[in-house]
Amino acid sequence: MTLLRTLFKTKGEAISFAAFAFLILLVLPLALPVFRLNLVGKYLSYGFVAVGLVLLWGRCGILSLGQGVFFGLGGYCMAMFLKLEASDPVTTAIQSTPGIPDFMDWNQVTALPGFWEPFKSLWFTAGAVFVVPGMIAFLIGWAMFRRRVGGVYFAIITQAMALILSLGIDGNQGYTGGRNGITDLRTLWGWDIRSEDAQFKLYFCCCLLLLAVCLLGKYVINTRFGRVLMAVRDQEERVRFSGYDVAMIRTFVFTVAAMMAGLGGALFVLQVGFMSPSLIGIVPSIELVIFAAVGGRLSVVGAVLGCLLVNAGKSAFSEAYPDLWLYLMGGTFIAVVMFFPDGLAGLFGKPSGAGAKLTKFLSKFRPSLMGAAVTPTQITPLNK
Amino acid sequence: MFSQYTTEELYNIFLMQCFSGLSLFSVLLLMGLGLALIFGQMGVINMAHGEFMALGAYTVYFCSSMTEQYAPSLGPYYFVFAIGIAFAICALVGALVEFLMIRHLYHRPLDTLLATWGLSLIMQQTYRSLFGAREVTPTLPDWLMGSFNIKEGLDIPINGVFVLCLALAVTLVLMVFMYKSKFGLRLRATVQNRKMSGAVGINTGKVDRLAFSLGCGIAGIAGAAFTTIGSTGPDSGSRYIVDAFLVVVFGGAANLLGSVASAFGIAQAQSILEFFLDGTKGKVATLLVIVIALMFRPQGLFPSKVRGH
């Protein structure tokens, strides 16, 4: 009971979480064919990053434009394991060096590079999905937060990291698969992940893990630590003077967010079946921030729903009007940032919040409209 | 690895890479100056800065095709005017953007970064709809073509020299403007202490708008310079944006001389390493060195000594 109280501060929170679980576990699987469900699963794997961003950006005030890096690292760990399983000596017998991934053979690499070796083990891979992004995030976070780098600087340096990683993978084709990425992934321990049955099961796997991560996020937010996070966001100096180690708190949140992103990346690869540098560069990293912003940067469930909505909109709209989509996306983003900084979740949370701000903003341009809206009786027909 | 070259050839290649580094330096410098101005003024990084550069480049292209169609006799001279027009158009659009968007977000610098990214999406798509997805190149006047032949095996292209001179001239004008003019004085005062500047009668809102539109205008000149060394596509600007950010951050934000030094360092390192390490590896190495350097020295090479904002 105490745990439940910690997880859900208000009834509203519990209801919205339950409704969300109901939606992804029951409604969507019943309503959608497996192909569409697989797409939803893909969007939900971005949700892991969004939960991390809620903790990191919404609650702690650190904007990272490099979450794609961690998403990609987790994804690449998983993809490397799957690729090694897909390139056993029998199926790759026609290559000049059988037993290594096909793209290595095409690039005249004759032996499996050392850093690929441990990825033959599923257990190592499962650990690496968390540890690799976590460790890198810890090192970067520790180096930067200890020197009190924050705000715009941090955003830019993390963005440069996204560029470095995507270029680095792109440029080392023999070892990483280059621009095409790691493709043609088939089985997980002999289980064909491309079959409809597997995709159905993987979807539920993804949902359950996502719900667990959401609960973890809610737990972090609603405990005392969550309050310290907000204090760091709003009054960094006071928290420091009260004896808290602000750098360590930020590093911790950054690391947790990176691990969540890594898990999301791994599930993305399992469901989509490939990984490429185009999914982890600058643009995808910013898009992840957009998903969280549209859904609501303060709300765990809101941010995940943001991923679903924006991506669903993207597939529906960009198929029909590819030209208009970018206008809509850019416009939505500007509108969200300017008028609804708390995203869609903020609209439901505080009835007087965002809506009132919009009216106030519009009233600057058309004062008469505002007056009319407040006292409708004053409106008189012009031509009687 | 380099056994197929003689020492002299390697030396010449090194010199030519240095020179192509100077062209990159010019574009990065022009981009960085505008960004540094905006960043120093408002603590905001304008993510649409690359698109303002592309706007300048497209303006030159538009002027070029108009001249060809209606006044072919002006061909040799149009380019000089096109640079001015590119500056004016970018500065105007910049002022408009500041008025409609940026000024409402001053107290939330991170959000400005995101909103300007939304703007960059819209601008890119506009270019795609207006000019098509293919890259375009304006017809350059003859006097920009060709190259100086210094000695056997060593050619210095004229357009590179022109772009370099243009970048240095803009830097010089901006410096004079910042440190000798009334507006520069007001701008520096606002950067140092916004409230106090307001109290002594400086219209800080107006200063902000002018600074933003000036920064965008300089991005327009960067775009004009860019057309002489490369072709322009809808996403040309975004290709340089991270480099330009790093120039500003690495040079020490709000420090113009720092931006010049870091633009030079980054451009040269990239251009020389690109040959000796091959394409992307050179770029990755440069970026890595900068990011690691920033972790040890987050205030950049030449931090400005102003405290408190």
What low-confidence regions of chain A span 5 or more consecutive residues with pLDDT below 50?
366-384
**Could you give the distance between the termini of chain A?**
66 Å
Cα-based radius of gyration of chain B, to the nearest Å: 20 Å
SSE run of chain B:
HHHHEEHHHHHHH
Structural class of chain B: mainly alpha
Helix-strand pattern of chain A: HHHHHHHHEEHHHHHHHHHH
Please summarize the sheet with the most strands of chain A. 2 strands, antiparallel
**Quaternary assembly:** heterodimer
Count of domain modules of chain A: 2
Number of strand elements of chain B: 2
- Beta fraction of chain A: under 5%
Count, helices of chain A: 18
Topology summary:
The complex is a heterodimer of chains A (384) and B (309).
Chain A: H1 2-7, H2 11-31, H3 34-59, H4 67-86, H5 102-106, H6 122-145, H7 151-171, H8 173-176, E1 187-188, E2 191-192, H9 196-222, H10 224-234, H11 236-241, H12 246-272, H13 282-295, H14 300-320, H15 322-339, H16 343-349, H17 354-365, H18 367-374
Antiparallel strand pairs in A: 1-2
Helix pairs in contact in A: 2-9, 3-9, 3-12, 3-13, 3-14, 4-6, 4-12, 6-12, 9-10, 9-12, 13-14, 14-15, 17-18
Chain B: H1 7-42, H2 49-70, H3 78-100, H4 109-131, E1 147-151, E2 154-157, H5 158-180, H6 182-192, H7 194-199, H8 204-229, H9 236-251, H10 256-277, H11 279-296
Antiparallel strand pairs in B: 1-2
Helix pairs in contact in B: 1-5, 1-8, 1-9, 1-10, 2-3, 2-4, 2-8, 2-9, 3-8, 5-6, 5-8, 6-8, 9-10, 9-11, 10-11
